[in-house]
Amino acid sequence: MMLGSGGKRIMGKWKGAWFLVRSELLWARWKFIMPVLFVGVMLLFMVPFFSDGLNGEAAVFSYWGIDLYALLLFPCLGMMGTQANFYWKSDMYTKKLEVWRTLPISLGQIALGKFLLYLTVSLPCMILFFTGFYFSVHFINPSFEFQAFLQFAIFWIFYTMVAGFLYLYVEIGYKGKTYFWYCMLLTFGAIGALVGITIWTKESVLVNSYNTVLNGGWWLPTGAIAISAVCIPLGLRSIEKRLRERDLSK
What pTM was estimated for this model as a whole? Predict the structure, then answer.
């Protein structure tokens, strides 16, 4: 331990972050079944449309549906199972922050702990999703190549890690109602953008990402890993800075 402001003893960086993760996991209990069930729903919806897209047989508007799941809802998997209540009705994370600030953990450890908690939920769900996705699509379309799929999955997993900060920063950095309206604007904005892109291109972002790596686009997963290596530390610092500036009384 080390001394923080006001003489408060601060846990080591990783110890304090994992303390927060463990406390949140114990609090969540059975709620972790929610993202697992959602993975099943995503597979039921995405597999047939993706398979049709590989063969060029999918309806145009089915593309924006699977793209919406990938771009907007993949990052949400890491948020499920640790939600306290509807953010419009409660401001649970403001209350939690008030408690966390009395504990021997720093703001940087709170930021790191939230991200580790996100990964603890998100990564197993993404692995479960892509395992089911590969075998299901391969059953329907035997030409679905494993090597290309692996690069495709790596790209989307690292995309999910970075995109998660779009939710984490606002969830912990602002009041519950602000986070609620932010999610509404993000959802409807994404729907509008994807509908426009689909009408214009008549293609799917998800299907195109697979076809890109299938045709030698090794730079796609490599670029996602490189961008993550830059964005994750920046995201953690941004959350810490926001927590330092935030007045919990307002």
Answer: 0.89
How does pLDDT run across 39-69, given as a tens digit for each residue? 999 999 999 999 998 887 777 778 888 999 9
Please provide the distance, in angstroms rounded to a whole number, between the alpha carbons at the two ends of the chain. 32
The model's pLDDT over 72-81, given as tens digits with 9 standing for 90+, comes to 889 988 887 6
The residues near 71 (Cβ < 8 Å, ≥ 6 apart) are: 163, 190, 194, 205
- The closest of 137, 111, 117, 126 to 159, measured between CA atoms, is 126
DSSP assignment string, the chain = -EE-GGG-EE--HHHHHHHHHHHHHHHHGGGGHHHHHHHHHHHHHHHHHHHHHHTT-S-HHHHHHHHHIIIIITGGGGTTTS--S-TTT--HHHHHHHHHTTSS--HHHHHHHHHHHHHHHHHHHHHHHHHHHHHHHHHH-TT--HHHHHHHHHHHHHHHHHHTHHHHHHHHHS-HHHHHHHHHHHHHHHHHHHHHHHHHH---HHHHHHHHHHTT-THHHHHHHHHHHHHHHHHHHHHHHHHHH--TT-
